[in-house]
From TrEMBL:
This is Glyoxalase. InterPro entries: Glyas_Bleomycin-R_OHBP_Dase, Glyas_Fos-R_dOase_dom, VOC_core. Pfam families: Glyoxalase. Residues 10-127, 169-283 form the VOC domain.
Length: 283
């Protein structure tokens, strides 16, 4: 999983707003397989390995339902260490009878899709070997084909499900945005990502270090989609991990784009042109 290590830039954590933190914590433990790292009456910090925070669920004051046709989270994606682990997770999900929204073979990965009780999208996936990915003129070939669930279940049959494997990481995030031209400038010119796939006129996939994508961006909720209300269920922030030597460069490039940048405890807080809030950490 070197695509999610120094010197690459990658998503390390996602912070969600939910209507009922107890309900969400139960779901993320029992259905997804997280462990609780810490919690209080309003918030739970969730982990796969018992030490690294991957997901935060928070119940804000006056928590409201997720708003349709807005910018924000399309899904966050948990990357499992192996195909056998994905097969084990699929069997677990089928046994719980929790409703799935889809399952696909994307050539670069195999993925299962569902949503939490608030409608926040979740992808659970495993990558295919990077040497099998096809690149043409800097663009990675991806597709949406039916998942071979039967084969995956057979491969995972010898791997008992005991929650998320400790090696699970936040593989990528996929966002609803209001438009793509200014968004591409922000993420590529400002944050240093590379475009790896333009999926028609409505979606863009970007990464660092030759990964198939660390961030997906789409306008499927409609061009000009508004930001959701502050207390609505959905994405509060997501965290991007950068090499520490990039901090000054990133700050300068974002300010050149007239993006708002605030520093808090060594991290930078900013937001993309569609209002998606981002925490930048440097280590």
């Amino acid at each position: 999983m070197t695509f999610h290590q120094y010197p690459n830039t990658y998503v390390s954590q996602v912070h969600l707003l939910v209507q009922d933190v107890k309900r969400s914590t139960k779901f993320y433990q029992e259905i997804i397989g997280f462990r609780i790292l810490s919690q209080n009456e309003r918030q739970a910090v969730l982990t796969a390995d018992g030490k690294t925070p991957l997901l935060v669920v928070e119940q804000p004051e006056g928590a409201a339902p997720k708003q349709p046709r807005t910018t924000g989270l399309y899904h966050f994606a948990l990357l499992l260490p192996s195909r056998a682990d994905l097969g084990s997770a699929l069997l677990h999900l089928l046994q719980t009878q929790y409703p799935l929204q889809g399952a696909s073979d994307h050539l670069v990965s195999e993925a299962i899709y569902l949503a939490d009780p608030d409608g926040n999208g979740i992808e659970i996936y495993a990558d295919t070997p990077a040497e099998s990915w096809t690149w043409n003129s800097g663009q990675v070939e991806m597709a949406t084909k039916p998942l071979n669930a039967e084969e995956l279940l057979a491969i995972g049959n010898g791997t008992p499900w005991n929650g998320l494997p400790e090696e699970t990481i936040m593989g990528h995030i996929h966002l609803h945005v209001a438009e793509l031209q200014e968004i591409e400038q922000f993420y590529c010119d400002g944050l240093g990502f590379d475009v790896v796939l333009k999926y028609g006129p409505q979606a863009l996939f970007i990464s660092t270090g030759g990964y198939h994508h660390h961030i997906g961006l789409n306008t499927w909720n409609g061009p000009g989609a508004p930001s959701p209300k502050e207390n609505a269920s959905g994405l509060k922030t997501f965290t991007l991990a950068f090499p520490k030597e990039e901090k000054e460069n990133i700050t300068g490039r974002l300010r050149k784009l007239a993006a708002q940048v605030n520093e808090i405890e060594g991290a930078l807080l900013t937001q993309d042109p569609s209002g998606n809030k981002i925490k930048l950490v440097f280590s």
